[in-house]
């Protein structure tokens, strides 16, 4: 067709009027083909843009989905909704685990009571009762852990249910530390407990929480952004709700108040500042687990009252109550 259009012989034998008419028809056909070409080009460009736009939206949507999904992923090293610490005779270290995935159920720690004393604590860092118990007993219990006679598992919760409240933000701070620097989590726990009696209205701000955990030794930059971004607040809410529905490895069904302190599966129900009552429970559960009535038998009883503590009433152990220390 193009060669025919360019061949001037097609005009031979035509009158001037016919030649002009043919030229106009050819020009019309060329204009129509050009319009069709441009239209095809516009359609192709629009189609390309639409496909590209859909792809961009898909990528953006996937990123948003992953961002939302990530807020429901739990912190590393808290697969049980708590972080477990064990000792080797001198050092306390955290047991590392995977993170709890969205919609998954926590995996309760295997707390074999025949080896070492198993201590589990559910704590709300806004609670004065938690501070009372910890002030009276934490030094002794944590000494058992570092000596290798006990383990301790901390479960931070927020019983007030306020997503922006101090209980949630403090528990989130613990989760942030556990996620990045697990071995520093016990020190951060102790610092949060120490801060409780002098909390301002509304509790510590997120910036103050960052300063607190850094002073306690958790200096990873990722922890600061995790705290200020409330990265694990959804997990805190979920973990709290799960504990309010079920408390594993315990003779109590659900969490109703903090502190909930469980010794070898038995919840402590004595006065929060009564170290003698706590030592009596330790003796009782030891006897039930081993059939031995003297929990101090495995340790040096010199200067003790048979509870594994010294005679000063401070709860500092000379030997842990009746267990063989864990292998280092």
From TrEMBL:
Query: Where's the Thioredoxin-like fold domain?
Result: 118-276
Checking Pfam families in the record gives: Thioredoxin_4
Q: Where is the signal peptide?
A: none
Spans through the membrane: 43-65
Does the keyword Cytoplasm feature in the UniProt annotation?
no
Q: Which UniProt keywords apply?
A: Membrane, Transmembrane, Transmembrane helix
Q: Where is this region: Disordered?
A: 290-328
For this entry, the protein name equals: DsbA family protein
Where does this protein come from, organism-wise? Herbiconiux daphne
């Amino acid at each position: 067709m193009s060669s025919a259009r360019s061949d001037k012989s097609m005009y031979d034998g035509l009158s001037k009027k016919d030649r002009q008419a043919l030229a106009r028809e050819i020009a019309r056909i060329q204009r129509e083909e050009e319009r069709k070409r441009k239209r095809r080009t516009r359609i192709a460009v629009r189609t390309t843009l639409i496909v590209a736009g859909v792809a961009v939206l898909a990528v953006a949507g996937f990123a948003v989905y992953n961002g939302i999904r990530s807020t429901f992923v739990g912190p590393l090293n808290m697969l049980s909704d708590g972080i477990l610490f064990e000792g080797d005779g001198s050092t306390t270290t955290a047991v590392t685990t995977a993170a709890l995935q969205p919609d998954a159920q926590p995996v309760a720690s295997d707390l074999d009571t025949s080896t070492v004393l198993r201590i589990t604590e559910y704590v709300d860092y806004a609670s004065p009762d938690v501070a009372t118990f910890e002030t009276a007993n934490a030094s002794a219990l944590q000494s058992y852990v570092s000596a290798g006679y006990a383990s301790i598992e901390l479960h931070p919760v927020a019983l007030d249910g306020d997503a922006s409240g101090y209980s949630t933000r403090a528990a989130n701070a613990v989760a942030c530390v556990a996620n990045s620097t697990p071995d520093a989590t016990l020190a951060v726990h102790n610092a949060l407990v120490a801060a409780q009696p002098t909390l301002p209205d509304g509790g510590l701000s997120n910036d103050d929480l960052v300063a607190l955990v850094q002073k306690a030794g958790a200096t990873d930059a990722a922890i600061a952004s995790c705290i200020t971004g409330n990265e694990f607040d959804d997990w805190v809410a979920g973990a709290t709700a799960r504990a309010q529905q079920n408390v594993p490895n315990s003779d109590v069904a659900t969490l109703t108040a903090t502190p909930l302190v469980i010794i070898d599966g038995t919840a402590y129900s004595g006065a929060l500042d009564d170290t003698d009552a706590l030592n009596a429970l330790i003796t009782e559960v030891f006897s039930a687990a081993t059939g031995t009535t003297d929990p101090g038998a495995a340790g040096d009883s010199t200067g003790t009252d048979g509870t594994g503590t010294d005679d000063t009433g401070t709860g500092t152990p000379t030997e842990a109550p009746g267990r063989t220390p864990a292998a280092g």
